[in-house]
Amino acid sequence: MEILSIEKELRDNSYPGRGIIIGKSLDGVHAVTAYFIMGRSVNSRNRVFVEDGEGIRTQAFDPSKLTDPSLIIYSPVRVLGNKTIVTNGDQTDTIYELMDKQMTFEQALRTREFEPDAPNYTPRISGIMHIEDGKFNYAMSILKSNNGDGSSCNRFTFAYNNPKAGEGRFIHTYKCDGNPLPSFEGEPKLISLSGDIDEFTASLWNNLNEDNKVSLFVRYINIETGKYETRIINKNK
User: Fold this and answer.
1) Assuming Cys at both sites, which of 135, 143, 145, 228 could form a disulfide with 124, CB separation 3.0 to 4.6 Å?
2) Pairing state of beta strands 213-222 and 30-38?
3) Cβ(143)–Cβ(158) below 8 Å
4) What is 147-211 written as a DSSP string?
5) Residue 158: what pLDDT?
6) Which residue blocks in the chain are alpha helix, DSSP H?
7) In 3D, which of 213, 220, 218 has the Cα closest to residue 231?
8) pLDDT in tens, 159-193
9) pTM of the complete model
10) Helix, strand, coil distribution of the chain in percent, nearest 5
11) Rounded CA gap, 139 and 87, in Å?
């Protein structure tokens, strides 16, 4: 599989929607994750990321402009012990709560499906990172309609054991802009990872479409110690 440039992937796609990146830093020291949101409507663009314990949540930037919180206000990131959960919706809570009851990532997501926002049927994308005893592995999932048919849900899970340094995977909700918006296709894209947390954060933010980008979260977790650094950028300030 060709290793893609994440900068080019973002630069060449005006509307990938929401996206999750997970991988290992080039020096092999850190587990890396990033999550971004974009928006075309006033309601979608009226958001910021705020820290919430070890995770983050979305919040209305201007509460007076918030019209429908159901699919835009949620916790994208939560931490359950040595596991970091990253998703594009309230399935973060589903994964957290059911894994806390000894269910697996995949089992938890079997209780959910794509978002009920016809005709787009936005896919639910999710990731989980597991760091223990100096070892790191992760999985990613997408729940999507059957080629735009809202009566059928297709579920895909991708697991990555002992990921290679300098490589990551990128999954996003929409293949590209459109009306209706076409769902992401195929397995998560293989991308190269380089730079420290500030360089990586800047490279992502600077290549997201200027009109549509809303917020970005990046976290680097030391695989040996579990300690992490986080960066958040919000377009609304």
Assistant:
1) 143
2) antiparallel
3) no
4) TTEEEEEEEEEEEEESPPTTEEEEEESBSSS-SSPPBP-SSPEEEE--S-HHHHHHHHHHHS-TT
5) 98
6) 6-11, 42-45, 91-99, 105-109, 197-207
7) 218
8) 999 999 999 999 999 999 999 999 999 999 999 99
9) 0.98
10) 15, 40, 40
11) 12
The pLDDT, as a whole number, for residue 68 is: 87
Q: How many CB atoms lie within 10 A of CB 79?
A: 17
The residue written with tokens 């999932």 in the block is 141
Nearest to 20 by CA among 91, 68, 100: 91
Q: Which amino acid is at 41?
A: S
Largest Cα–Cα distance of the chain, in whole Å?
Answer: 47
Cis ω on the peptide bond leading into residue 180 (within 30° of 0)? yes
Q: Are 228 and 31 in contact (CB under 8 A)?
A: no
Place of tokens 């996003």: 172
Strand partners, 4: 191
Residues of the chain with pLDDT under 70: none
Per-residue buried b or exposed e for 92-119, using 16+ beta carbons within 10 Å of the residue's own CB: bebbbebbeeebebeebbeebbbbeeee
State the pLDDT at residue 123. Answer: 98
Residue type, 146: N
CB contact at 8 A, 47 and 59 = yes
Compute the distance between CA of residue 209 and CA of residue 91 in angstroms, rounded to an integer: 26
Handedness of CA 7, 9, 13, 18 (dihedral sign): negative
Question: What's the CA gap between 114 and 108, in Å, rounded?
Answer: 14
